[in-house]
């Protein structure tokens, strides 16, 4: 965990092969907690929600788009009643894989 954080910060040598090169200067957070308590879990969830909210403000998007959530629910119900071929190729392939596991 600590090595990964350091890798994000420092990156790798530019002489690495292109697919192995990591530029570095990538921010990350390391959180250390003594116990996994309900209070700590709540704090982690609150931190994540705040991060998502701030990113939305910076990028000028609605991170908690309720209408998008509602559309997803509607499409999910329809997806349970339709064949894979009635969807775009990407969704059809994923749906086929999920249904094969059920």
Please, could you describe this protein's structure?
It is a single chain. The relative contact order is 0.06. The protein is 58% helix and 0% strand. The chain has 3 domains: 1-30, no CATH class; 34-64; 66-101, no CATH class. It is built from 4 helices and no strands. The model has no long low-confidence stretch (mean pLDDT 89). It has helices at residues 2-10, 38-59, 66-80, 89-101. It has 102 residues and is mostly helical.
For the structure shown, list the relevant keywords.
4 helices
Concise account of the structure shown:
With 102 residues, this protein is mainly alpha-helical. It has helices at residues 2-10, 38-59, 66-80, 89-101. It starts with a helix and ends with a helix.
Largest beta sheet, briefly?
none
Amount of beta strand:
under 5%
Rough shape?
extended
Number of helices: 4
Radius of gyration: 21 Å
The span between the termini is 34 Å
Structural class label: mainly alpha
Write the layout of secondary structure elements.
Layout: H1 2-10, H2 38-59, H3 66-80, H4 89-101
